[in-house]
Amino acid sequence: MDQPALDRAHVDARHRIVAIFLGIIVNRLGLVEPLRAFPPTDAVFRTVEMLGAITTPLIALVIGYEVRLQRGALALPARATAIRLVFWVPVGLLLIALVVNTLLGGDPLFRAAVMTMFVLPAPFVAPLFMGRAPEDERTFVVNTLSLMTLVTLVAFTIVTLVFPA
Asked: What is the tens place of the pLDDT at every residue in 133-146?
C-alpha cells in the first residue's frame, strides 16, 4: 500500500475513534435528551439510528459477496479458528474461575456471558477496513469470519448447555 493510502486510512480511523469518544462523552454528560428536544439535532439522532439499523445487513451483504468457500481455501481459516478458540476458551474459563466465581458469586448468567464473549467471532466490519488488501488476504479474512460464525453457533449451544442461566 502506498504512503498516501496509509495516511488516509490513519486519518479515517482517527475520525472514527474521535466520533466514538464524542458519543460516549455526550451520553455520559446526559446531553442526549436536551439535544433530542431541539429538532435539528433530533433529526441527526434519528438519521444515525436509521443508518445504524442498516449497518449490520450491509456488512453481511459485503461478507456474503466476498465469501469464497473452496476446499483448499478453508484449511488456513480452520487453523486460525482453532488457534483462536484454543487460546480464548481457556482465558475465558480462567476469568470465570478468578473473577466471576470469586467476585461475582458464580452467577450462571455472568459465566455464560463471559464464555459467549470469548467464543464470538471477530467483528464483521474487518473486511470493510481492509481497503486495497490483496485478494488472498481478503478471502482469508472473509472465510475465517464465516467459518467462525458457524463455529460460534455450535459453541454458543455448548455454552448454554454447560452454563445454564
From this structure: 887 888 888 888 88
